[in-house]
Amino acid sequence: MKKTLEFKAHDGEIEDIALGPDNKVVTAGRDFQCCVWQQDQLVTGLRWHENLPGIPDKAYRYQACRDSGTFLGLGTVTGSVAIHIAFSLQRLYYVKEAHGIVVTDVAFVPESQPGRELLGGHEAALLSVAVDSRCKLHLLPSRRSLPVWLLLLLCAGLIVATILLLQLAFPGFL
Q1: The pLDDT of residue 51
Q2: Res 49 pLDDT > 80
Q3: How far apart are CA 62 and CA 80, in angstroms?
Q4: What CATH architecture does domain 14-140 belong to?
Q5: What residues does each domain of the chain span?
Q6: For this UniProt entry, which segments traverse the membrane (predicted)?
């Protein structure tokens, strides 16, 4: 193996590292940060006190990370588990103290046939393992979305309403 790239990702030790799509790398460090990298450039990151305001960042830190391509799963030293959108790090799911103590690893259920059966109607499933000798399954509910036909119907209604309002405001419009 040859080293192809070296850069300072965190102040202190790196707790976990995960490879994501498009050559992105996710790191969780002892400096209370979780970062997404493209080569040696920081794409985006989470700091504990920005993600969960009101909780002192020196008491907690990210411990484990996994990137499914769409989602980023995180475990903490406090036993909490979270799922974020991978590209924006918007939090979709959070369970405070899902485990009694340190989450040592997280993993997404693969998108194979047995994995899809386990998912049911959920968007993602994350397994978490902790020092409390428990393994837990976290199911991310499917996010609600409008059917395309309803969206087109709403757009058509908006256009008709705009034309009618313009006709009312300016009688000789059409």
Answers
A1: 55
A2: no
A3: 9
A4: 7 Propeller (2.130)
A5: 14-140, 146-173
A6: 146-170
Enter the DSSP assignment of 141: P
Decide: 26 and 35 in contact? Cβ < 8 Å: yes
- pLDDT bucket at 4, cuts 50 / 70 / 90: confident
Separation CA 135–CA 127 (nearest Å): 7
The helix (H) or strand (E) run that includes residue 148 is helix 148-169
SS3 at position 164: helix
DSSP string, 56-107: -TTT--EEEEEE-SSEEEEEETTS-EEEEETTT--EEEEETTSSSS-EEEEE
Which residues have C-beta within 8 Å of that of residue 119, sequence separation ≥ 6? 109, 125, 139
Can you give the C-alpha Rg of the chain in angstroms? Answer: 22
Q: Which amino acid is at 3?
A: K
Instruction: Report the amino acid identity of residue 102.
Output: V
Cα angle 119, 124, 126 (rounded to 5 degrees) comes to: 95
pTM summary value: 0.71
To 10 degrees, the CA torsion angle through 99, 12, 29, 41? 180
C-alpha to C-alpha distance for 91 and 87, rounded to whole angstroms: 11
In a 13 Å sphere around the CA of 139, the CA atoms on its Cβ side amount to 10
As beta bridge partners, residue 138 has 126
Report which of 96, 80, 76, 95 is spatially closest to residue 32, judged by C-alpha positions: 76
